[in-house]
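Continuing from the previous page of notes. For each protein in this section, the sequence appears first, followed by its C-alpha cells. Read the first protein now.
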Amino acid sequence: MDYFSLQLKKGFEEHGLSAFVMDLCRAKEGSKKLKKFIKTGETFVLTFNFEGLEREEGLFSLRDSYLWQQYGVPVYNIAVDHPYWYENRFADLLEDEEHHPGLLSFYHHFSIDRNHEKYFNTFYPEFKSAGFLPLAGTELIPQKEQKPPEQRGETILFAGHYTELPFFEKNITAINEEYEAFYRGIIKDLEENPKKTVEEASLAAVKRETGEEDIRKLRDVLYNMLFIDLYIRNEVRGKAVAALAEAGLPVTVIGKGWEKLPARRKETLKILPMTNSEGVLRALCEARVALNVNPYFKVGAHDRIFNSVLNGAAVLSDESLYLNEILPEGCGVSYYTLEALQKGETEAMIRTASKLLSSPGICREMVEAGRDKVRTEHTWIRRAAEILEQIQKGGLK
C-alpha cells in the first residue's frame, strides 16, 4: 500500500496538486503538519484499507471524532479486498457515527472488483460508494531499457504468499461436526463451481440453513467465515504452482510458506524470500513469464497483471470477466481456467506455459500487444486522474 500511495502521489502532482504523505507510524507528530496543510473545501484524503480511519492517535479522539470530520475533509478509501474483510472497520465507523453524527458523510468507498462494489452497495447502505476502481501497475524501468525476452531468465515467476491447507483445519473443525460439515459443503461448492464467488456460495449456504435475511447479521456471519476465502485462494494458487513445477517447468516464487507446498517434484521450484513492491517489480524485469492467480476476483484484476506487462513479462493467468474484457487472449496475457485447474486437467495450461518459456518471440508479441493498453489505462498515474474525476463530482475544487 505504501508503494501504491507513492505512485498516486506522483500522479496527483502531475495534475498540479500538492500532496501530503502521512506516516501513520508517527501519526501524532505528523498530525500537526497535516493540520497546517489542510484547506477545507480543497483538501481530500486518499487511503487504502481504512488506514487513517482506525482511531489512530493524532487523527481521532472520543471527544472530537476524526480530524477529517473536524476539518470537513472527504475521505476516499480504496479497499483492496472484498468488503467482508472489513466488517470490523465498518462496525467501528458506525459506532463512531453514533457519537459524532455526520461522520459517515465524509466517507467514500472505492471497490477494486465490480462484485465487491455490488456487495458493498447491498450490504453497507449506510456508506457511500465512490464506484469501481481497479488496481493498477507501475513501469519500473522505461521500455527502451528493459531486457528483451531472449535475455530474461527462462522461468515462470509468481509473487505471493502460500498457506498450506491443513492450517485452516482448526477453523473448519472449531465448533462441532455440524458446523464442520457446513463449512466443508461451501468449500466443495466452490471447488466444483469455480465461477461462483465466495460470497455467492457462502450466502446461499447460510440462507439455506438458517433462512436469515437481515443484512447486518449476514455480513457478520461472512466476516466470521473469512477462512473459507483464504482456503480457496491458497488452494488454487497452490495447485497452479504445483502443476507447473510437477510438469518439470522452472517456477520461481517470491513469498512465505512455499516450502510447505505439497508438490511431488520440488526440484524445479525456486523459492525466494518475501520482498517489497519494488523488489517484485525488479524480479518481473528479469522474468520471461509471470504467473497470476486472481484472489477470487471475478470482475476485477490483480496488479500482478499490469505490473508484469508494463515490465516486459508475458502473463499466464486465470480468467476474470473484467480481464477478458480489457485484455483479450494474447493481449499481454494467455489464459487458463480455474475449472480445469480444480479438475486436475492442467495439460492445456502446461502447454501454454512451456510454449511461452521456449518462445521469446511469442512473449515479445504478447507484451507488445498489451503494453500500450496497460500503459494508457492501467497505471497508478492513470488511476490518480480517475480518482480526481470522481472527487470533483463530489464538489471539491
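Done with the first. The second protein uses the same format. Note its length before scrolling.
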Amino acid sequence: MKKRVFSGMRPTGRLHLGNYLGALENWVLMQEEYDCIFGIVDYHALTSEYRNVESVHESVFQIAVDWLASGLDPEKSILMIQSMVPEHAELHLLLSMIVPTPWLERVPTYKEQMEQLRDKDLSTYGFLGYPLLQAADILIYKADLVPVGEDQVAHIELSREVARRFNNFYGTVFPEPEAKLTQSPRLPGTDGRKMSKSYGNEIQLSEDPKQIQKKIMTMITDPARKRRTDPGNPEVCPVFDYHKIFTESAGRDWVVQGCSTAGIGCSDCKEMLLKGMLPVIEPLHEKRMKLERSPSDVKEILVEGTGKASRIAKQTMQEVRQAMKLDYSAEGW
C-alpha cells in the first residue's frame, strides 16, 4: 500500500508564486507516488482572523482553483475542506484533554507570531491550540508523511508526541507521522523582502501575464547599481533569485557576465527572466480562467473530495471512541 500524505493550506487569500514553488509543485509530484489528502484548513484561518470571516468562502474557492490549475488531480488526490469534516474538531477536543499546556507554549512559531502580530488580539485558546488542531488534522487520516519546510518540523514533532501519548494511554490507534522535508527555493517579493500578502509584494497565481511582466520590470534590483554603467552583483539581486528557478544555465551565465561587467542593464536582465518565466505562468493562468468560469465544477470536486475524507475520518473516530471508552453504539455499550 502507498504511504499516506496529508497537508493543508489556510484560506487567507489567493495563492502567490512562492506558495506554488514552495508547496504546490511538490504536492503535484507527490500525488504520483503517495496516497494524498490535501485540505483547505478553514478552521485555522480563524485562529488569527476570527473577526474577518466575510471572505472565507471566496478564499476557499480561489485556493481550490489555484490547486487545480497547478496540477492537483482529484482523480489522484483527495481535495477537501476541513470544517466540512466535523471529526477534525472532535479529535482536537479529545486530544486537548490529554496534551499538557506547556507542549503548546513551547512551539517556536507560537511566540514568534505573538511578537510579529501584535496588532491582533491572539490571547485565545484557538491560537494557543492551533498546533494541536494541526496534529488532529494529520492524525485523523493516520498520515505517514507530512510535507513541510524546516520551519514546520516542530509542529510535526508535536504531532508525533501527541500520537505517542494517546497510544500509551489507550492502545495503538495512530501511526507517528514523519516530516517529509521539501525543498523551497528562496523567492523574494518584488521589493526584495520575503514574498507575502501582508507586504503587498507578491506575484499572485491569478494575475495575468501582462500584470506579472509589469511587476517584474519594476522589481527592485541590486541597490548598489544606481546607474547603467555601474557593475552589479547578481548574488545580492532579488531578480537573480528568479533566474535560478526559471532561466537555463546559459542564460544565467549571460546575466552574471553582463551584470558584473555592466555589459547589460537591469531591464535586459528582466527581459531574459521573462523569457523563461512566462511560459511557466501562462498555461497555469489559462487553466485558472477556465476553472473560474465553471465554479460549480470546482465546488463539486471539493464536495466529492470532502465526502471521501469524511469516510476515512469517521472510521478513525470510531477507533478513537472505542479506545477511550466513549463508544455508546449497540456494539460498544
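What the second structure shows: The mean pLDDT is 93. The chain is about 55% helix and 10% strand. We return to this in next week's lecture.
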